[in-house]
Backbone:
């Protein structure tokens, strides 16, 4: 445990100065807040793992300000990777490529490959452009906890651990980047995220979910992750599940406004008319708020398994896993 008085503010100069001095700063991105530090310094990167209480075998994403910075940290960029970047960057796409030696082994957990992305957030891009190094940044939550989509979420998890939270407002996408790697002519999706399988398929016909094919083990695909403190159950039939637990203090996470609402202590609706983009943006905030009420159990409704619904179901499945 560090002993910082954690400040939240919009002072980009202060954020840059702290980072240049080897400190950690929580930064806004369009997906979730990141816990950032100098990606070229093994000492700084080690501090990220410690503040997050994250095991050293779980590698970090490196954030750069533009495609032109890629060649300084990766060895080569296959055509298909470049096409994906040109289509989706800046944006919630992370690509895994062979790393150059400037990236410390700590960042990649000794893998020969590094995960890179160009975030689509004005303040974050400004900050990256001011810095003489890229930023390693995992989501700014404690290990296995709920990812933060608002500065207050970061504060609730990392207060005392870091000096500064750069406030860029609530995150637009609200769900993490989609992580992809490349094998021959195939795009392997290691983590479903804000860019859907359908969108990637529009660019390239050969796309596979990596956990179906067990090519590389990505710790981001851990069974238990993204979890509130309260036990969570994911169900397709919310009414019958609520009835099963009617002697408990229940919190309910609905996808859309239900036709029949059973009375429960606490509830959140992700999107009143069932819009998946809105549901993704509200997901983690809703989980933080339900968790704060300290119910016995959170019952979450499964979303339609298409587009962003598939990515949200992925997070809720991991949140529910023991
Ligand atoms: O949207 C996002 O991706 C956010 C923002 C802050 O950019 N970041 C994020 O980072 O979600 P994190 O560390 O919470 O999740 C990144 C996942 C990890 O689970 C890790 O296993 C995987 O990416 N990963 C990182 N580097 C990797 C590598 N070299 N090979 C395989 N997987 C990697
Ligand atoms: Mg994370």
Residues:
């Amino acid at each position: 445990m560090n002993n910082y008085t954690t400040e939240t503010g919009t002072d980009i100069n202060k954020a840059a100065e702290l980072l240049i001095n080897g400190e950690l700063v929580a930064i806004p991105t369009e997906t979730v807040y990141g816990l950032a530090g100098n990606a070229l310094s093994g000492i700084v990167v080690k501090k990220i793992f410690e503040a997050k209480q994250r095991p050293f075998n779980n590698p970090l994403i490196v954030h750069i300000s533009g495609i032109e910075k890629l060649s300084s940290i990766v060895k080569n960029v296959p055509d298909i990777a470049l096409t994906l970047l040109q289509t989706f960057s800046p944006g919630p796409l992370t690509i895994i490529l062979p790393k150059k030696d400037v990236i410390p082994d700590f960042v990649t957990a000794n893998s020969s490959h590094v995960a890179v992305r160009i975030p689509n957030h004005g303040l974050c891009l400004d900050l990256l452009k001011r810095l003489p190094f890229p930023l390693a940044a995992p989501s700014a939550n404690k290990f296995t906890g709920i990812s933060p989509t608002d500065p207050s979420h970061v504060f609730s998890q990392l207060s005392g651990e870091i000096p500064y939270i750069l406030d860029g407002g609530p995150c637009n996408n609200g769900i993490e980047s989609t992580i992809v790697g490349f094998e021959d002519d195939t795009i392997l999706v290691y983590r479903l995220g804000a860019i859907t399988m359908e969108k990637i398929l529009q660019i390239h016909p050969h796309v596979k979910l990596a956990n179906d094919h067990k090519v590389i083990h990505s710790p981001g695909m851990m069974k238990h992750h993204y979890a509130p403190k309260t036990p969570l159950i994911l169900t397709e039939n919310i009414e019958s599940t609520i009835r099963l637990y009617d002697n408990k203090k229940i919190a309910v996470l609905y996808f859309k406004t239900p036709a029949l609402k059973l009375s429960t202590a606490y509830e959140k609706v992700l999107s009143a008319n069932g819009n998946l983009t809105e549901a993704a943006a509200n997901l983690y905030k809703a989980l933080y708020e339900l968790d704060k009420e300290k119910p016995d159990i959170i019952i979450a409704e499964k979303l339609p398994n298409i587009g962003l619904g598939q990515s949200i179901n992925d997070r809720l499945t991991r949140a529910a896993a023991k």
Q: What stands out?
A: Residues 276-292 form the longest helix (17 residues). Residues 14 and 206 are 45 Å apart (CA to CA). The domain at 232-320 is CATH 3.40.50.11030 (Rossmann fold). The first strand starts at residue 7 and ends at 9.
